[in-house]
Amino acid sequence: MFSITIKLMRKSARMLIPAGIAILIGTAFIAATFLFSNSMSDSLRSQMTASYADATHVVSRDSSVVTNADAAPETPTVATFRLDRIRAVHGVRGVRADTNASITISADGRSVTGIAIGTSPDRSLLPVTISQGEQPSGDDRIALPQSVANGLGLKIGDKVRVTSEQQNTNGETVNRRADVTVSGITDDPKGAFSFYGGGSVLSDNVIAQMNGVADFSHVVAPMLLLDIDGGDSAAASQTVDEVRGLLPSGYTIDTRTAIGDRMIANLGADQSTSITTTFLLSFGVLALFVAALVIANTFQVLVAQRRRTLALLRTIGAKKGQLYASVVAEAMLLGMISSVLGVAVGIGLMAAVIHGGMMRMLGGTVANLILTWPVFVVPIAFGVIMTVLASLSSARTATSVTPLEALRPIELVDAERHAGKGRAVIGTFMLVIGLVAAGFAVWRLHGLIASGAIAETGGYPSLLLLAIAGAAAIFLGLMVTATFWMPLLMRGIGALVARIGPSATIANSNIQKNPRRVAATGTALLIGVTLVSTIATGAASGKQTMGETLANRYSVDMAVTGEKLSDKNIAQAAKIRGVESTLYVPTAIATIDDPKGDQMSVLLIGVRDVSQLKGVMRADLDGVTLGNDEMLIQTYRGGDGERLVYGDKRLKISEFEGYAGMPSDAAGTADAEDAAGDAGDAGNDQSDTSAGRIRAGFELTPVNADFRNVSADQSAVAFVSDTHFTNGDITASGHMLLMRVDVDKAGTTLSDVFEQMQNTFSYDTGAVVTGSVVERATWETIIDSMLKLLIGLIAVAVLIALIGVANTLSLSVIERTRESATLRAIGMTRGQLRRSLAVEALMLSLVAGVAGIVLGTLFGWLGSYMVFSLYGEVAFPIDWTINGIVLAVAAVAALVASVAPARRAVGVPPVEALAEA
C-alpha cells in the first residue's frame, strides 16, 4: 500500500506543491526563530565576557566563601597571584592580570575621558586589538582608540598627557599625570569598552602611576585571565587543578563559559531571550495553523478526485484502515519533506542575516550561527503534526468510499458541503460568551474610571485579561461558524458581481459550489488580515490618544532650555519644517508661597506681552493681560493639580532656595554673602547662575490663566514682563526657546522635527529639548517600531493564506475540467475563462479581507479602550492607510495567484479535456 501511496503522491505532485510551500514557510519561520534566539544569547554572552578577551578560564574571588583578613587579601594586587609560577604550569599558554585605570587624555587644549588597561605579553588576552603600530612595550607609552586619536588629532609618535583623579586615604582628591608617547591605535571588536568608545593600553609603569602605587606589582588586579590548552580534556583538567593549588585562599578558577552563563542568569537575560523566543514562536505556530487550513483543502479535493481510484482499491481487497493509513502517510511524507526544506531555508536565511551584519543592528556585537537540536526537531515535529491533523478529516472521508463507486461517474464536489449542528452550537456559544466577557470588561472599566476608583480597587489586570479572553472567544467563534456566514457573504457579493458580465456570472456560480472550501480559504486569510488590522488600529488609536493627552498636558509644543542659546541656532530652529513660530525668552527660578502658605519654586519667564504667548502657546488667553506689576501664573500646579488661585493678594518673589546641588541653608548663606558684596566664592557663583538673582522686596500681583506644563523641570510657571529682566528686578539664570509645532500642515513627522531640533542645538552646552512633541515623538517611535515588527511577523500568515487562495483556484480548475471544456466548446473565449478565475480570486480575497478589517478595527478599538482609557479620552480611528495597503496587497496577490490556474484551465483543448474528464 505504501508504494501505491508514493505513486499517488507523484501523480498529484502539482496539487501538493502549494500546500508544501505553506508548510515550508511556517517551519522556516520557527527554525529561524530558534536560530535568532541562539545568536542573540551567544552575542550577549560574548558581549558580557568581552573583557576576558580570548581567555578560557578566569581567576577571581570566590563569592560563595566567607573569608577573613587572613584567608584572602582585601585588595588583590598583581603580586597576589604570583604570575611567574602560574605561567610555568604545563598547559597554561598565557596569563594576564586584569589591571585598569580611569584616565583623561589631553592634547592641544582638548581632552577625552576613557578607560585604560595594562599591557600583556600574551596579546590574545588583551580585550582590545592593536590595529596600527604596536602595543606599549616599554615605559611611558600608550595605544589609543581610533576615535580618541581622531578626536584629538593624534597619530603614532605624538606626545599626550594622561591624568587620573583618585582619592587618597584621607579622602582628598589627588591628580596624577604622566606625559606619554602614542605607540599604537587600538580597536574594540567585541565591544568590551563600547561605553567609552574603546579602550587604551598603557605601559606598566604608567598604569602603576595612575593607580597611585610604586610599581606594577602593587596595582589592584581583581581578576586573572588564563588561556589553558583544552585540546585534551584530561590534561586541561589537571592544569586547572595545578593552577588552583597556586591560588591564594579565597580565590577560585572557573571557565569563561560558566561565568558567562552566570552573568546572563543574574541579569535575567536568559528569561528575556526565552520570552522573545516564545513571542516569535507564537507567530510561527499561527503560520502553521493557517497552513493547516490550506492543507485541509488540498486533501479534501485529493480524496474527492481519487474516489474512483479508492473504490477500485476497495474492489481488489483494500481495507478501510489501509485507505485511512494511506492518506495519513501521504500527509506525513508531505509534512516531513516540506518541514526539512523549511528548516534548511530557515538556516539559510539566518546565515545570510548574520553574515550580512544585521545582528549588529539589532544590538549584538558579534553573532554566530548556533545550531541546536530545537532548530531541527521542533519545526519538523510541528510541521508533520499539523499536516497530519489537517488530513484526518479527508482520511475519514476516504474510508467512506464503497467499491460500487468505481462504476459511477466522477463527482469531485459531492463531499459534505454543510456544516453540522454541533459546529453551529459551539461557535454561537463562544460568540455569546466572548461578547458578554468583553462587554462586561468595558462596562466595568468605564465605571471605575468615572468614579476614580481604578487605582483603589486593583482590579484592572483581571479586567484586561477578561477583555482579551472575550476577544479571543469572539474570534474563535467566528472562525468555527465561518462555514455558515462566509458563504452567505460570498453569495451576497457574488449576486452584485454577477451583473458585470458572463465571466463574473460564472465566477459567482463556481464560488458557490463548495461553501466549506470557500470558508476554509477565507478563514485562512481572515486570520492574518484581522491581526494586521487589530494591531494597526491599536497603534493608530494609541498614537492619537497619547498625542491628544500629551497636548492637553503641555501648552507649549516644544521648548529648548539652556543657560544661553546661540542666535544662529535660534534662527535655524525657526526654519525647521513643522515649526510654526518661536519665542526666545529669559528665565529665572524663584520661590513664592502657594495658596496654603507653603513655599514652592516657580520658573519666571519674561515676555513682552500676552500677544507673544498666543503665538507659541496652546491655551485660551483671550481677554488675558499682563501688566508690569503682574505675573501670569497657571491655575493648576503640575504634578499634584493644586489650584494656584490667590485673588488680589500680592506675592513676594524671593530667590530660589534649595536648588539641586546645594542645601537650602547653603543657598541662603550664599545669597547673603553675595548681597554683602563677596563675589569670590565659587559656590556663590553657582547659586547666581543656577537660580538667578531676585531684587530684595520684589512683589507682583498674580493673575491666573489655564495653561499647562511649559517647563519639564518645574511644576509651576509664571510669565512676567521682560522689563523686570532689564531693569535689575530679576537676573536671568537661563533662557528658553518656546515653539509651536504643526507637523500635519508641514507634511513632516514629530520624530523628524525632534531629531532636527536636537541636531541644531547639539553644540549649545547644556541645551535640553523638552515638551509634548518630545514625548509624543518618543511614544510614536516605540509604537511604529512595534507595529512594523508585528505586521512583519503576521505577514507570514497572510502570505500563506494567499498561497491558499492560489491552491483553492488550482483545485477548482482540476475539479471543473469538464465544465471548463464545455464552456470553451460552446464559445467561451480563453480571456473570458481567465477573467472568471480572476474574479473568483478577487471575491475570495476581498470578502475575507474586508471582513478581517472590520473585525480587526473593532478588536483594535476594544484593546485601545482597555489600555489607553487610563491615560485620557480614547480616540477610535480607522487606519485607512494600512488597511488599504492590506486590501490592495490581497487583491494584487489574488490576481497573481489566478494566473497559473488560468493557464492550466485554458491550456487543454476542449475535446481532450472532455475525453479526460
What does this structure look like?
The protein is of the alpha+beta class and about 900 residues long. It has four domains: about 1-55 and about 255-415, no CATH class; about 55-255, no CATH class; about 485-555 and about 775-915, no CATH class; about 555-655 and about 690-770, no CATH class. Helices cover about 55% and strands about 15% of the residues. Strands 12, 13, 14, 15, 16, 17, 19, 20, 22 and 23 form a ten-stranded mixed beta sheet that branches. The chain has a six-stranded mixed beta barrel with strand order 3-4-9-6-8-7. Strand 13 (about 580-595) and strand 14 (about 600-605) form a beta hairpin. Helix 2 (about 15-50) runs antiparallel to helix 12 (about 375-400) and helix 16 (about 480-495) runs antiparallel to helix 17. Mean pLDDT is about 75; it is low at about 65-75, about 360-365, about 410-420 and about 660-690.
Task: Tally the helices.
Answer: 31
Structural class: alpha+beta
Task: Enumerate the spans where pLDDT stays under 50 for 5 or more consecutive residues.
Answer: 66-73, 361-365, 409-418, 658-689
Please give the alpha-carbon distance between the first and last residues. 26 Å
In round numbers, the mean pLDDT is 77
**Any idea how many domains?**
4
Q: Estimate percent helicity.
A: 55-70%
Instruction: Work out the radius of gyration.
Output: 37 Å
Largest sheet: 10 strands, mixed
Shape category: flat
> In total, how many beta strands?
23
* β-strand amount: 15-25%
